[in-house]
Design a protein that fits this description.
- By secondary structure, this protein is α/β, with parallel strands linked by helices.
- Among the domains are: about 240 residues, 3-Layer(aba) Sandwich (Rossmann fold), CATH 3.40.50.620; about 150 residues, Isoleucyl-tRNA Synthetase, Domain 1.
- It is about 50% helix and about 10% strand.
- It starts with 16 loop residues before the first strand and ends in a 15-residue tail after the last helix.
């Protein structure tokens, strides 16, 4: 980390200590645009804003690395779980770095500190009688010889009949599921139907913690800025009555349970993962308890998408309340709705949508991505990413509105006044404009204080719109050619405009950090400018006085052309084998292949072919019925055909034999 943020003990004298977290991204999923806006980007904007306001802000996040999904992925890729975590942690870190997400510390949950803190909370809950022991019916795959936790099993949702529900939650209706409730369950590794067996587990006694939880929630929701969806989801959980919740799992990859009777188990990832906020902070500073055991002096902001709400508003607070160790609990729970892609959902396997590692390959700057995602931020309702709309917003709002105003203001100074800000003689019309701009600044601050990130962005665009109208009406390029009075007027309009441009650079910093820096360099703005303008309820002051020398002015944004957008839309629109664009491709041997290759799909199909091959071999080894084997062999051949197409090869069988590498 590039800075160490320590707790400010002068809290009572107005220096706020703000602790910001964004939901820990699951390590082996490459985040898509919806994940980025829902968690890390929203939190980044708020953390940057808090620093601008002079608050003492600590922003932590990291990869959530334990659990079934990691074991699954490791098996698929032929790596150990630790190797998978190391590989994908680096992928996440580089994506967020490209999006300029300015964490104070980006850590991970597979650390010694995680084990210490999670086990300490566990023992405190145990000593205070908040844990229960019970025997659980679980699905066990006899072929794989193990219990099937969460993501190792899929079947039909008992609530909404969605056919691909996981063993812990249905992605369609969002309801939590006990794996044995799934209809037609299948093991995800070998596709066999599992059997029900019993296993002893530990539970967090949520009913026993319901009274302190309700008491705390009433206070936190009453005084903090909880989004409407966070309140509603939490209330619906409480309305249904809390039930004991299992905190252990029959897995190898996880934080070990320290109890001697359960030494073969690990903590369930949803007991364990939120403790990651604490352990990640502990890996950042040995003063971590001053942040996490200090509710009197610390305000905690949790950022997430709505599907994570119950774990942050009910399950995790109950763990901390039951531990009775004066933990800092969430004051402001900020949840977004979902971001969709065009008119569908993001899907890595179908090649639909933009994932974090692909954004930088589009040639569109990181700041433009940030702007558009924040402009669309699903506050209050779902929204959808659209390429055509991104082009419109870039070309109309960034290029023609914001960029045009800032560029013209700077150009007038360099062209008409030799790079020197002219003297300003304010008329009633100028004062009216300054009042309107001042009002938008106050709006921006009051909205941002309430974490209305999307609405605050509109205040910035309103100011540049006012500035453009002001320039159009006053026509300084004409007045500069007139007499003394006209020249004086051109000077005032230019001076006022360039000062508004300077204010915009400050307001833009949380949203578009690189553009903000570029504007400051072009205007040669003093470093003190930020502190002044965002103090109190907002203070629009003249930061570039008469005689101030500016730097070299150049355009801030580029037009997104229709053909460029059309290409991107095709590229990220998903490719089914049957409708692939057929382009000649060349193999390493130089032969031309006629089918369109899709390397991403090929990677997935390679894993599928390997898995299906193993299944066929296992069935043959068990001397299964010929008809059963034949069905699985047909599936294997079909997968191999799809793989050949995805690799751009001819799927027809060839006479040459030999293993494909």
């Amino acid at each position: 980390s590039h800075r160490l943020v320590l707790l400010n003990n002068d809290y009572l004298h107005g220096k706020r200590n703000i602790l910001v977290t964004s939901a820990l991204p699951y390590v082996n999923n490459v985040p898509h645009l919806g994940n980025i806006i829902g968690c890390v980007l929203s939190a980044d904007v708020y953390a940057r804003y808090g620093r601008l306001r002079g608050w003492n802000v600590l922003y932590v996040c990291g990869t959530d690395e334990y659990g079934t999904a990691t074991e699954n992925k490791a098996r698929e890729e032929g790596l150990t779980p630790q190797q998978i975590c190391d590989k994908y942690h680096t992928v996440h870190a580089s994506i967020y770095q490209w999006f300029q997400v300015d964490f104070d510390y980006f850590g991970r949950t597979t650390t010694e500190k995680q084990t210490q803190i999670a086990q300490n909370i566990f023992w405190r809950l145990h000593e205070r009688g908040f844990l229960l022991e019970d025997t659980v019916e679980q699905l066990r795959c006899e072929m794989c010889q193990r219990f099937l936790a969460d993501r190792f099993v899929e079947g039909t949702c008992p609530f909404c009949a969605y056919p691909e529900a996981r063993g812990d939650q249905c992605d369609k209706c969002g309801k939590l599921i006990n794996a044995v409730e799934l209809q037609e369950p299948k093991c995800k590794v070998c596709n066999q139907t599992p059997v029900v067996r019993s296993s002893k587990h530990l539970f967090l006694d949520l009913p026993k913690l319901e009274a302190p939880l309700e008491q705390w929630l009433e206070k936190s929701m009453g005084s903090g800025d909880w989004t409407a969806n966070a309140k509603q989801i939490t209330r619906s959980w409480l309305r249904d009555g809390l039930k004991p919740r299992c905190i252990t799992r029959d897995l190898k990859w996880g934080t070990p349970v320290p109890h001697p009777d359960f030494s073969d188990k690990v903590f369930y990832v949803w007991f364990d993962a939120p403790i990651g906020y604490l352990s990640i902070t502990a890996n950042y500073t040995d003063q971590w308890e001053k942040w996490w055991k200090n509710p009197e002096q610390v305000e905690l902001y949790n950022f997430m998408a709505k599907d994570n709400v119950p774990f942050h508003s009910v399950v995790f607070p109950c763990s901390l309340l039951g531990a009775q160790d004066n933990y800092s609990l969430v004051n402001h729970l900020v949840a977004t709705e979902y971001l969709n892609y065009e008119d569908t959902k993001f899907s890595k396997s179908r090649g639909v949508g933009v994932f974090g590692d692909m954004a930088k390959d589009t040639g569109i700057p990181s700041d433009v991505w940030r702007f558009y995602l924040l402009y669309l931020r699903p506050e209050g309702q779902d929204s959808a990413f659209s390429w055509a709309d991104m082009a419109i917003k870039n070309n109309s709002e960034l290029l023609n509105n914001l960029g045009n105003f800032i560029n013209r203001a700077g150009m007038f100074v360099s062209k008409f006044f030799e790079n020197c800000v002219p003297a300003m003689d304010l008329q009633p019309e100028d004062k009216r404009l300054l009042a309107l701009v001042g009002w938008e600044l106050k709006q921006y601050i009051s909205l941002m204080d309430k974490v209305k990130i999307r609405d605050s962005l509109k205040c910035i665009l309103n100011i540049s719109r006012l500035g453009n109208q002001y320039i159009q009406v006053n026509e300084p390029w004409k007045k500069i050619k007139g007499g003394d009075t006209d020249r004086q007027r051109a000077g005032t309009v230019t001076g006022v405009s360039v000062n508004i441009a300077c204010l915009l650079s400050v307001m833009l910093l949380p949203y578009m950090p690189t553009v903000c820096q570029t504007i400051r360099e072009q205007l040669n703005a003093p470093p003190t400018v930020t502190a002044t303008m965002l103090q109190g309820t907002g203070n629009f002051v003249c930061c570039l006085p008469a005689g101030h020398h500016i730097g070299v002015v150049s355009p801030l944004f580029q037009k997104l052309e229709a053909d460029q957008i059309e290409d991107l839309k095709k590229r990220f629109g998903g490719q089914q084998v049957s409708t692939m664009v057929v382009r000649p491709a060349t193999t390493s041997a130089g032969q031309t292949v006629k089918n369109g290759a899709d390397p991403e799909r090929a990677k997935e199909l390679t894993l599928a072919v390997a898995g299906q091959g193993e299944k066929v071999r296992a069935l043959k080894g068990q001397k299964a019925e010929k008809a059963v084997i034949a069905v699985e062999v047909d599936k294997l051949l079909d997968l191999k055909k799809q793989l050949a197409l995805a690799e751009g090869k001819n799927p027809e069988p060839t006479l040459t034999k030999g293993k494909k590498k």
